[in-house]
Specification:
The chain is mainly alpha-helical and about 150 residues long. About 75% of the residues lie in helices and about 0% in strands. The longest helix has about 35 residues.
Length: about 150
């Protein structure tokens, strides 16, 4: 079932429970969520060429975010960085498949709504979900300051 005419099929809003507490990482997450919301709006308005471009933007933002996040975690000495990097590497393959799927998608709202919901679920359930593994580490880094 499609959303009402001109109503986006989803609207991502990150709550405090999905934020990591690191300004750079959280800001990037918010921008990625915004890209998903822009995609949902394009779907609602049946701007399918824009949907293809926004899927590419989503994938590019995610790839850039992975590099940025790994840099932050490396600088802070996150002990499970290699495992987290491995997760990112698996996600990169999925992002390529999302771009291919978008290019091949038929120009109809119902298929695009399903696709948009799949991207949103990937971002929230898998990408944000994986980041919750290091959230407590970041909180500890902020609250435990080395002695001077």
């Amino acid at each position: 079932m499609s959303a009402s005419p001109n109503q986006p099929c989803c609207n991502l809003a990150l709550s405090s429970s999905t934020l990591t507490g690191h300004e750079v990482i959280d800001d990037e997450h918010l921008h990625i969520a915004g890209t998903v919301n822009n995609l949902a709006e394009a779907v609602a308005e049946e701007r399918f060429e824009d949907c293809i471009a926004l899927t590419g933007d989503f994938a590019d933002r995610m790839l850039s975010h992975f590099d940025s996040e790994e840099g932050v975690l490396g600088e802070l000495g996150y002990p499970d960085l290699e495992d987290h990097r491995d997760l990112h590497n698996g996600f990169k393959d999925r992002l390529d498949k999302f771009k291919d799927e978008a290019r091949a998608a038929p120009p109809n709202r119902q298929d695009w709504e399903t696709f948009c919901k799949k991207l949103a679920a990937f971002f929230i359930d898998e990408a944000i979900g994986a980041d919750m593994d290091f959230k407590s580490f970041l909180i500890e880094m902020v609250t435990v300051q080395p002695a001077s």
